[in-house]
Amino acid sequence: MTRLHLALAIVALSMLAACASAPAPGRAAASAGYDPQQDLGLLWVKHSAEYTAITRQTYRFAEAALPRFIADTSWSAMPGQSDAEKLPPAVILDVDETVVSNVDFQLTFERPFTNRKLYDFYREHAAIPVAGVVDFVAAARKAGVDIFFVTNRPCETIDEEPDPCPQRHGVIDELESIGISTDDEHVLLADENDWDRAKIRRREHVANTHRVIMLFGDDLGDFVPCVRTKLYGPCTEPATKASRAQLVEKYTNYWGNGWYILPGPMHGSWTSFK
Ligand SMILES: [Mg+2]
After folding, report:
1. Beta-ladder partners of 187
2. Which residue in 21, 73, 110, 200 is deepest, having the highest Cβ count within 10 Å?
3. What is the pLDDT of residue 29?
4. Could you say which residues of the chain have pLDDT below 70?
5. Is residue 192 part of a domain?
6. Residue 239 falls within a domain, yes or no?
7. Which range marks the domain in which residue 147 is found?
8. From the CA of 97, how far away is ligand 1's center (Å)?
């Protein structure tokens, strides 16, 4: 090896070491000195009347559109869904920050985040409904719409739990506690049945049997795939700030028209693009 090669190798190794030790952008908040009690995103969700007003507004606006989307059997909120006229209508909702608010968990958990910490939190704390969702789900069901919950909480074993997928019943119990009853078939978690963390495959699974008339979520990934730096599902390139903005524009006609996004200032795919 020449001196030049040796120098280049040392530089490359140094860069690799730096990358390995640096926190991912989305985890920067986990670094020392971070105080959730000073995080404006968290404080806004916890304390602002505006947050409650926005979520209530979103669900009420969607409820008003239910009759139109139920009646128009050519309508689907899933781009590319066709031949669905005879399928029963369904709505897909994300769970965290869409149906239940995790703000108290976000304000108190010891960083870094793990799914286990969230699971344990809800064994001991009551779930907080996102304002407006309970009334919306009741209205949709009354109108004959099936409701599915697609969440990226994982389906994985926990040492002391005999259930191989205790998170599913964790979610079902949380929803029950806020007044939304559901069952195993309607709660679709990440990484089960060869589904990865891209929710598109689970949305397609619902679309096999239902005409999907509305999508709800707090993250761009609740509506379209390829919004993250990691490659999931059909994605071949890491997302960028620009590609995410382009997706919002590409599907502009869906926003407020079958797609209903809720505020997500506490966490989510956006945090990798600050
Ligand atoms: Mg969410």
Report:
1. 149
2. 200
3. 46
4. 1-31
5. yes
6. yes
7. 35-273
8. 5
Per residue in 1-11, pLDDT (tens digit) is: 445 454 444 43
The environment of the single-atom ion ligand 1, i.e. residues with CB closer than 5 A, is 94, 96-97, 218
Ligand 1 geometric centre to CA of 31 (Å): 23
Q: How far is the CA of 227 from the centre of ligand 1 (A)?
A: 14
How far away, in angstroms, is 94 Cα from ligand 1 center?
6
Within its chain, how far is the Cα of 172 from the centroid?
Answer: 16
Distance 197 CA to ligand 1 centre (A): 12
- The model's pLDDT over 83-99, given as tens digits with 9 standing for 90+, comes to 999 999 999 999 999 99
- What are the CB-based long-range contacts (under 8 Å, 24+) for 193-202? 196/232, 196/233, 197/152, 197/230, 197/232, 198/225, 198/226, 198/232, 198/233, 198/234, 198/235, 199/94, 199/150, 199/152, 199/225, 200/224, 200/225, 200/233, 200/234, 201/233, 202/150
Count up the domains in the chain and report the number.
1
What tokens appear for 136 in the block? 């919306």
pTM of the shown model: 0.88
Specify the pLDDT at position 9: 44
CATH classification at residue 68:
3.40.50.1000
Q: Residue 140 falls within a domain, yes or no?
A: yes
pLDDT at 7: 45
Residue 5 pLDDT: 52
